Amino acid sequence: MNQTARRKPGREQDWVAKEWAWAWPDNRRILYNRASADPDGKPWSERKKLVWWDAEKKQWTGADTPDFIKDRPPSYRPAPGTTGVDALAGDDPFIMEADGKGWLFAPSGIIDGPLPTHYEPQESVVENFLYGQQCNPKRLEYSRPDNPYHRAFADPRFPFVLTTYRLTEHHTAGGMTRVLSWLSELMPQMFCEVSPDLAALRGLRHGGWATITTARGEIEARVVVTRRMPVLRVRGQVVHQIGLPYHWSLVGLVQGDAANDLTAFVGDPNVHIQESKAFTGDIQPGRRSRKRRAAYRGELRASVPELPRDLPQVEPLQGRVPKQHELAKE
Amino acid sequence: MSKKGFFTDTTLCIGCKACEVACKQWNQLPDDGFKFTGLSYDNSEHLGSSTWRHVAFVERPMALGMQVSGAGNFSWLMMSDVCKHCARAGCLESCPTGALVRTEYDSVYVQPDVCNGCGYCVSACPFGVIDRREDDGRAWKCTLCYDRLKADMTPACAKHCPTASIQFGDLVELRVRAQQRVEELHRRGTTEAYLYGADQPGTEGLNAFFLLVDKPEAYNLPPDPVVPTRKVRRSWVSLAGAAVAMAALAVAAVTGV
Q: What are the 10-residue block averages of pLDDT along chain B, 257 residues in total?
C-alpha cells in the first residue's frame, strides 16, 4: 500500500490521525512524545495523550508511535558510568540530547546561547524592541569593499524590506533549471513582487521595470504588483516589503539579474548561513544603468552616519577578508 | 472500453504546474517561448498547440467561503485547464480529413499523420483548445495520453498531480465523486463550489470537467460553450429559406405580380 497516499479523514480515526498520509521515518507525528506522559509513564492529560507505558506488555504504546526506547520502563535508571543510549533514564524524553533533557537554558552547543531571544537582522527598518543589543552579538561580519552594510535601522537611503525566496519552477539559483525549456518557459524572467501601495508610492507599473538597490549592488526586474505582498505595520510604522525570487543569472535559456547581488554577507554564528531573507533596500521605476554597478567599483549611494548595532562591550566575529586580487572582476 | 476522463478539482490545486511539465515531457512538446506575462504566476497564458495542460492563476480581491487567512479579503485560485474531450466535439465534427477521431475511451484524438493542417477544427472549438503549430502547420491538442492508456497507465498530468486535483478515471464514477465533493465543500461552508462541464448542454457534456469556485469567466472558460456544428442544420434551413425568398422575389419582379 502507498502509505503516503492514505486519505482517511481525521474524523474517522483518533486525534493523532496516523492513517492520513505518512510521516517519515516511522509515521511518528510528534517528536519527543514521551514528554506527553509524566515520569511514571501516565499521560499528563487524558484529552491530549499521545503515548503511555503499558506495564502488562512492558512497552511504550499509544495513539502516536512512541519516540522513545520501546521497552525502557519509566523506572529505569542507568548505572553510574553507563554511556550512549543506555545512559538515558526512563523519564528522559529528549532522546536526541546527550542527557535526554529538554533545554531552555543551553550552556553548551550553541555560540549565541544560553537563552533564546530576538535580534533584528543586520539591516532592519526598526530598532530592536526587545532590548538595547540590535543584532546578534555573535554574528559573523565580513568587512570588505564589496560588502558595505546599511545603517542598522531606519537607513534613509534604503527604506524598504527586501526578502528573497524560491519559486516552484526553479532550483536554487537556477543553474540547473534555467537550461530546461519546460521549466524556463514557466518562469522566464526575473521579477519583483510589490504591494499596490508601494507601487503607488514609487510609481511602479505592473509588468514594467524596476531597479532595486542596496549598498552592494543594483539589479533590474519586472514588476508584479500583487495583494499577496502585504504592507506591514510595525509599531505604528508602515513597512513595505519587496519580494525577490533569486533564480536568475547570466547563463541559460532565460537570463536576468541575480537577487544575490543585493544581499549582504553576514553569517549567523552557529552555521554561518547568510541573512538573505530579511535586509533593506530601495526600489525605483525603470531599468538599471547599462553598466551594472557594484559596490567594489565605488560607492553606490553616499554614506550616512551609522547607528549602533551593538552595545559598547560587544564585538561581532569577523570573517576572512579577501585580498584585493581575489575580488570579483567584471 | 468504459468512457474515461478527467475531474479537475480546482480547490485542491496548489499551482505547482507539475501537470504542465509532465505533459510536456511525456509528449515531448516544444516550449512556447520565454515570455513574461505578469499574469500572477502564469506565464504560459492559455492552452495551445504545445501546451496541453495549462495552470491558470487567479488573484481575487475577495475571500472564499469559510476562508480564514491573514490575507484578508483575498484569495488565489489555481486551475489546471485541459482539452475537455467534449461529448459532442466541434473539432471532430468539422474535420474534413478524418484526422480527428473518437477513441475507444471516448476521448477525441488527432492523428498527426492524417491531419493536413486546414485549421477548421481551430475555429470550431468553443474553448480555444486545439491549435496549429507554426512550424509544421498541423493541429495538436491533448490526447488524453492515448499511448499511456493503451499500456494501462494513467495520463501523465493526473499521475504527477501531488494533491489529486487532477483525477483520472471512469466518467460515471468521476461524476459521482465530483458531486460528493461539491456537497462536502458546501457542508464546510465553501458554498460557491459547483461543477463546470458535468452537464454542458452546448457540447452535450464534457469528458474533462471541473470543480470551480468562481464564475467560469474568472478562469478564462466560456460560460456557455456551444459547439458551432450544432448550428449547421439551422443555417442550412435559413439558407434554403433565403434562396426560396430570393427566387420568389425574382419571379415577382419579372412577372410583375
A: 93 96 97 94 95 96 84 91 96 96 97 96 96 94 97 97 96 96 94 92 93 96 92 93 96 87
- Residue B179 φ then ψ, to 5°: -65, -40
Q: Which of A185, A206, A228 sits opposite B33 (nearest CB)?
A: A185
Query: Which SS3 state, helix, strand or coil, does residue A210 take?
Result: strand
C-alpha cell at A29: 507525528
Mutate to test the interface with A, among B23, B31, B40, B73 (most CBs of A within 10 A): B31
How many other β-carbons are positioned within 10 Å of the β-carbon of residue B62?
11
Instruction: With beta carbons under 8 A apart, name residues in chain A contacting B37.
Output: 207
* Cβ contacts from A onto B, under 8 A: 61
Residue with cell 466560456: B222
Of B15, B16, B59, the CB nearest to A227: B59
The CATH architecture that domain B4-226 belongs to is: 2-Layer Sandwich (3.30)
Closest residue in A to B21 (Cα) is A182
CATH among 2.40.10.270, 3.20.20.70, 3.10.450.710, 2.40.40.20 for A140-326: 2.40.40.20
Residue spans of the domains in chain A: they are 1-102, 140-326
Residue B8 neighbours by CB distance under 10 Å: 28
Instruction: Write out chain A residues lying below 8 Å of B44, CB-based.
Output: 185-186
Residue pair B1/B150 in contact by the 8 Å Cβ criterion? no
Q: Tell me what ipTM this predicted complex has.
A: 0.90
Å between A205 CA and nearest CA of chain B: 11
pLDDT digits (tens, 9 = 90+) for A175-229: 999 999 999 999 999 999 999 999 999 999 999 999 999 999 999 999 999 999 9
Nearest Cα residue in chain A from B161: A5
